[in-house]
Amino acid sequence: MTLDDLPQGALPAEPVVPRVDRASPSVQKVTRAEELRLQLADEIVRGALAPGSPLDETDIARRFSVSRTPVREALRQLVASGLVEARAHRGAVVAQPSIERLTSMFEAMAELEALCAGLAAERMSAAERHGLEAIHEELRVLSYTGNPDRFHEVNERFHNAIYAGSQNGYIAEITLATRVRVQPFRRAQFRNLGRLAKSQAEHDRVVVAIMRGDKQGAAAAMRAHIELVRGEYEIYAVSV
């Protein structure tokens, strides 16, 4: 079954970006389409779905016991992220972003996250700082459990809290949109041996700088963190 409404030459839909709520660092409730996107993206990054593999809407809907509507939306988001290609009259197939493309995406992510962290160091309210510390502590506990999926979920909240703390909704939206594109690769690297503890230590440097109001220190710590995430993904990619 093809993506009928993606004719040749048409631009893929923009990824659905979760809104950052200034009152809460958590994202809105995950939709079924988002759950499917995460599952399929994870399988693509792990190599369970090889490049060139067809992604038939009907087969996927049957596999996950859902209608084709959330499947179609999930595939649209995967097309927008570059993990899937929509080919006219042939449907969707698994793509493989080039090393150059991934490098560009992570470079953009590092600079955007650094910008958010620096602004958060200057602008976060006392309540927001307290909330960030609470999430950081939750991640500290999870870093000992060896559950990468749960760590990833709370890690999303950690970064969302910093985006919201920048007090700049436009920058937060751009950062979230970029994160949607690199999210599968960020998530995969949590499976590396010892990565959860390392990520926690990197977060610690970011949090300390934010609590001190150190704009440059927070930005530098976050930039270094994202650059290390890219390196960890490259290690993971070689191992699968």
TrEMBL record:
Keyword line: DNA-binding, Transcription, Transcription regulation
> InterPro entries, per this entry?
GntR_C, TF_FadR/GntR_C, Tscrpt_reg_HTH_GntR, WH-like_DNA-bd_sf, WH_DNA-bd_sf
Q: Which residues form the HTH gntR-type domain?
A: 30-97
Indicate the secretion signal residues. none
Name the domain of life.
Bacteria
One of the record's GO molecular function terms: DNA-binding transcription factor activity
Instruction: Read off the PANTHER family from this record.
Output: TRANSCRIPTIONAL REGULATOR, GNTR FAMILY (PTHR43537), TRANSCRIPTIONAL REGULATORY PROTEIN (PTHR43537:SF49)
The protein in question is named GntR family transcriptional regulator
Q: Which organism is it from?
A: Bradyrhizobium ottawaense
Lineage of source species: Bacteria, Pseudomonadati, Pseudomonadota, Alphaproteobacteria, Hyphomicrobiales
